## 1
Amino acid sequence: MSGESLSTDLRRLEEIVRMLESDDTDLDQALLLFEEGVAKLRAARERLSEAELRIQKVLEDAAGQLRVEDLRE
Amino acid sequence: MPKDPSLFPDSTSLPRPSDRPSDRPTALSVSELVGVLRGSVESALRQVWVKGEVSSLKSFGKGDWYFTLRDAESCIRCVMWKTYTTRVGEPPSEGTEVYALGNPTVWEKKGELRMAVVVMLPTAGIGLQQLGKEKVRAALEKDGLLAPERKRALPEFPALLAVVTSEDGAALHDIIIVARRRWPRVRLLIVPAQVQGDGAPAALVRAIGRVNRLQGVDLCVVGRGGGSREDLLAFDDERVCRAIAALRMPSISAVGHETDISLADLVADVRAATPSAAMELALPDRVHYLRHAESLGSRFAHALRRRTEVVAERLARGGDRIQVAMTRRISDPRTRLERMAGQLEALSPLKVLGRGYSVARLADGRVVRRRAELPSGTEFTLRVSDGEVPSRAS
């Protein structure tokens, strides 16, 4: 999951809402914006939903190789 | 006895009384001389620690100090600007022995030696530790590692966050709690390191080096929970500070201390007072963004509703029963946001009406769909938004 895309989605959503709130957008365009807005909103909600925190530990073996293992609290 | 001609230059090259000194190209002006001296003093000793007694200290303006540093044999005039004196606090009393860090220079206006002091520590009462810390600070400063323009901005949504800290300390527990609350979608990579004791600096340097070898780390937090001054020494270590400065990604220092600032704090891009505070700075707040998304969602729904009402009104004016039925469905206040968008999409043929197209009907009311339905001479009615136009195919 990339946070950058959340940021981009929210910015785009804001733009869409602004365009819909203004009367300049023609109906044709508005329909496309609705569709896009619904998808963005759904994606943003998904990204902001609860999630399990993933915690890992970085270790270095004798050969100097890094490895990652899950950390138990 | 004839004079040895080599000892006496040819009389023609001797200055004649008419030659004024200013005509001689080899003479320096006073300011040139002082300028040259200043240059050579400044390049001979850039920044240096001096031990001496403070005397004749006078404070001017809002805290610029002018004083003399002296020992048994010699003395030098010093100046310490307000920016630096505020770190010292009260001016030292006459005769106080201090360590002063400064740059020797020449004050050109008076042609006098000066030392521009930036750090002053009384020799009594300060341990070697603090002196050592000041030395490290000066070394880091000299290499530009404390420069404000070096500070990098933190990423807004870090996906991979490395944390260099002790595996057993309370700090790790706090870090996990904050991460879980604020942004549980982050992946935490704990890079364990000893954070106090003799081995701590080397362990921290190794751990920080590991972070640099990991791919895709967005942000690194380096720190530990609170402790005594002794416990926090590793975070004043020059090697540790340089390792932090060499991190490829932005860094936050999180050394739990009450008053003192560690050198690691000065090198990191952002300083936090505790590990929990570091995590607050590191991670976005899920709830905040959720609220933002919800508010955009309701504005969106509102705009959607308003739009559909405009369309509905237009359709109602058309008087078509099917369209009216659709209008009712669209403007149903209980219709959920997503469904509304879907319905609007279903309405897409009507988009055409909105743009001012017209509908052609035959005498029996059928809508004309194909060219074949309109052979030449056929009469039909053209329905436009404000009425009907009797027409004939040519």
## 2
Amino acid sequence: MKQYRIETRELSKKFRRISLFRDISLELEGGSSLAITGPNGSGKSTLLQILAGIQAPTRGAVDRLENEESLEITAFHRLLGFASPLIHLYGECTGIENIEFALGSSDSRERADELLQYFGLIGHEKKALKTWSSGMQQRLKLICALAKSPPFLFLDEPGTNLDRSGKKLLYNRIDVMKKEALVIIATNEPEEVELCAEVLNLGT
Amino acid sequence: MVHDIYRNLKKDLQVEFRNRSSFNVAFAFAGITTLAVSLVAGGSPLSPLVHALMLWIILFFSAMNGLLHIFTREEEEGTALFLMLNTGAEAVFASKLIFNVVLFLLLEALVTPLYLFFLQVPVASILLLVLTIAAGGMAIACSVTLLAAMVAKAGGKGSLFTVISFPIILPILLVNITTTLAALEKPWPGPVSNVLFLLAFSTGVTVLSFLLFHFIWQDT
């Protein structure tokens, strides 16, 4: 079984003169989970994006490892499930077309159907995404992040726009996934923080 | 990578055909300009040089919006991050490049016969004209695809694209116009080496774009 790990050394991020956070060193591996919390503007989403290789830190470095070997950014992205308010799916495409795009093939239709069923979207999958409600779009965004059963799962405010039942489904799924995957959630929702074994508060 | 290119190309075609904005604008612009030129010319004979100039000006400005749109659409609709996380940079570039080359070739296939028909342009060497139009279009599409990515990442619009692409496009346009002029005036083979230059230019600029695209596409 492959071992996945993420390591950061003295990560700092500045926007012009404003320092968001300084000297964050972390070490997380598959089967561990971390909640990043903090007030608005503290850099939760920015830190998550840096860990995901979407943004560069001002100082410090991030190592993403598979069996102790460093992963190239493209190889890492293939192993990453990422959901964030920054991500927008293709509105002109249907739900199933978006999932197939995230999965990388149409051969995994069973997996797509299983997740559509789980998140209560069966029956909507052939409609263009632009006709979906924001809550349904958030569910689909989560499906796309979870579709490949990724060993790295990074979620930014995953409960956004979800109703009570949607949140429950999501939390149950995260509970299962965190046993093997490396899960990081940027959030201020107490229920989402409780899902994680460790907490990093950027406000302190 | 081939699978990723196919997957992204399929997605781009789905989005573009359902949205139809870049195709509609490019083809409408091309059709209307060709008709307008033929009406204004009113049957009066124009010199082969003017025909060659007019043809490439119509092709260039018709295609600019469509060629840019393939990248700006991803940024404007916020889908660039979803694309970046699910497809490698090289596959993204290759699929967008193929899309742009096909778009330009389709546009040329529509505009050139229309232009020749409406303005009653005599052609001395059909083969050289076809080769020039195809190779010239490919050279333009290959050159501007990387620029389109740069403009999209910079949050720029069409005007910026036309301005920054002009210095790179200018030598290609000059070669296209002189070779098209030769095809209208001289029998085959004419300056067929110009066609080879255009193909070599396309290859060179594509290789360079492949090497540079990663740095434009990914901020890290």
## 3
Amino acid sequence: MNMINDPREHLVVIGNGMAGMRTVEELLKLENANRFRITVFGAEPHVNYNRIMLSSVLAGDKSVDEIVINSREWYDENGITLVTSDAITKINRGDKTVTSASGLTVHYDRLLIATGSRPLAPPIPGLSLPGVCAFRDIADVDKMLAAAKTHKRAVVIGGGLLGLEAAWGLKQRGMSVALVHLMPTLMERQLDAAAGQMLQRDLDRRGIAFFTDGQTEEITGTEHAEGVQLADGRFVPADLVVLAIGIRPNIDLAKQAQLEVNRGIVVTDDMRTSDPEIFAVGECVEHRGNVFGLVAPIWDQAKVCAARLAGDEEALFVSKALATSLKITGVDVFSAGALMAADEADDEITLRDDSRGLYKKIVLRDGRLVGAVLYGDVADGQWYLQMMRDKEDVSALRERLVFGRAFAEAGSGKPATPDFAAMPDDTQICGCNGVCKGTIVSTIQAKKLSSLSEVRAHTKASASCGQCTGQVEALLAFAAGGAVKANKKTVCDCTDYSHDEVRQGILAQKLKTMDAVREAFGWKKKEGCHKCRPALNYYLICAWPGEYRDDSQSRFVNERVHANIQKDGTYSVVPRMWGGLTTPAELHAIASVAEKFNIPTVKVTGGQRIDLLGVKKEDLPGVWNDLGKAGMVSGHAYAKGLRTVKTCVGSEWCRFGTQDSTGLGVKLEKMCWGSWTPHKVKFAVSGCPRNCAEATIKDMGVVCVEAGYDILVGGNGGVDVRVTDPLVRVATEEEVLEYAGAFMQLYREEAHYLERTAPWIARVGIDYVKKRLVEDAQGRAALHARFLRSQLFAQVDPWTERAMGKDAHEFATLPAIEAV
Amino acid sequence: MSSNWKNIGPLSNIPLRGARRLCLKHEGRPVAVFRTGENEIFALLDECPHKKGPLSEGIVSGKTVTCPLHSWVIGLEDGKAQEPDEGTTQPLSVKLVDGDIYIHLPEAVGAAA
């Protein structure tokens, strides 16, 4: 081995897996890490990867590269000698050496055993046939993927976490999948029977066939696996059999070295084995009678082990209550602690809603929460887990506890702001990008971040839907303390000027092109960036209607191709239905289009129209052409502009209706469609205060009353639900239309790009909006007039234009010209 | 001219500060050709290093393109993601000859769209 003259102590790690390397990573973070030179032996040919994510690789959600934790460069940079494809076969405690399969013998001062676990393999005949594999490492996944390409039928044996994820992955890869499980219900160690049955029902609907109460007798076949024979006579044919019935700690080496072993390698609270120079972590260990299969306690072990290696004599490993979740898209399962009452002194409280697929059960013992099983909605899982860990008395919350955090705390007067210090590191903050509290805090501290945009850039937290922005800001304040900068909000990093300053400059200096704006304000990048280009393009459209020419290259793809890009690269098409009204002819046309273009999903939207989902890009002009022939135009479902005007049937049909809400909705939509706005805009008109059109959570809502029309503004039904502020009550439809146009124009002229009406009004105040629209009749009329003028240029149906050939390059790939 | 250089038509086929995806693929993977505001051309695999987003649908600014899925900014010259993101998408050779764009595809497996 190299570095033989290195005088430092030698730490040898057996096992290049998650537990061993996490311990090394933790060690490297410590000041004393330098006392060791480190050698790592791995039996697999790969660098260190995230084994938990193998199911995502199988399902095609991630590539092998994406689950690598540490690259070879990382080992080099940290001076770690990595020996792959060479398993240690012997530990010689007498002379403190280890010997590898290839015959390499190295001396150690400290030894870390992290040999993990092996798949459980009961003595079933046929296990060694080709076409039978476990689900443990990359080689297994490769086998399964190869089988999925050439074969059709897979059988997974084992209905626990691992088996279900394997079954789902193979299903995603196009195989027909059956799952054999010994017990009557799935995941019986984590779920009670009710939740297990709901899980089975959901997966059954997704096309996995279940054989529960199924004891495998034999895997049949001569040259290759052909099927699974169950003891009760049932037979399941298979080309691929995946054995996933469990794991057992890999203790062979330790046993042979005469370390104390039981089910696993026995360790004390300091992660030492019975030999004080030899440590062990991960799935191979047994601590106070427990063995481990989930990652959270193993991370804790790694931390303790690293501290001990570095000389800390205080660090102790404590087993905490654990939670389980299942990585199957769209199936939400959470389980922690006791699954059911252990005796009559325990209480079970259950909430079950079969039609919505919801199930919640909590188990109480002596006034404390000791178990929770959640199915369908797992949002409160971490909250329950924390209560279990804190062992706090929850008697006062007893009646409300099962309904979840929001309800329980609303009733208790306890503030809902999270306690970050107590929050576990693995609590997910950003659901879109899967970023946990621990990652955010450690990145803020390591990179000395001091603003939200930096946190977004480095961690991706709150960089997608933005729902968690408030939490991330609060975490930033928590983690960075006083170091948070109160940054001026500029348009983007290309400029030091704010949105308002740029907008005023555009008007005052009569700047009419993006180049002119960037030059006048000394933009740092000549062509701007993806943030400022769409903003400037909108500000110029708004400021100079009819003069400024829209730059499609400065628009996000949805607005450029006038359809919503979906996650698989197809598009959705939503034709306008004025006020939610349609006709038999339109419905015929939609049906014909869906059939002609093989559109897989047709859905009624929340905005009272019909969404055609899964349209191929090259089919878009054809789809629009056919819809256009039936008189339909773009619903702008992709646009920062007017989306829908939702209505109820109103006085024409409804016995409660006070005015013609449908008719008014159609008039509003006809007036406002096609306009570009800072963000999307939704209207609604309800025919009476029963408010069936949900007007009180729209950007502008109208609620009809006997005396006229109540106009409400600034509502939002999205992430942060905000109820509208009342603006004014008027007597006639004409007044409603004038207010609507004026409100649209005020929002268009004064809100920042990407600011919905709700945060805009929250920023400027409803009193300001009233001052401009209600108290200033002349100003209102002028705003309304400016809106109508801009609509002269905006109300062009983009679909008709594109069906006629405009921007054809957007909808076709570029062909090669035949070789000359 | 080597047969590995494929003529993909005139520069004007690609919008200024825009991109197109090709019918041709490179080793089975999609290819995007970009035209900057300065009329330079570049080609990259049409897969963001992050989640394989279609870079040809992104906004082109200077010599960068922003992925439409999660706004990673990718350099057109070297295919590298701008910091703090890390990753590279493979750049491919392109050249302009007599106003036509040629792209170098070593083992071009033609797939007519």
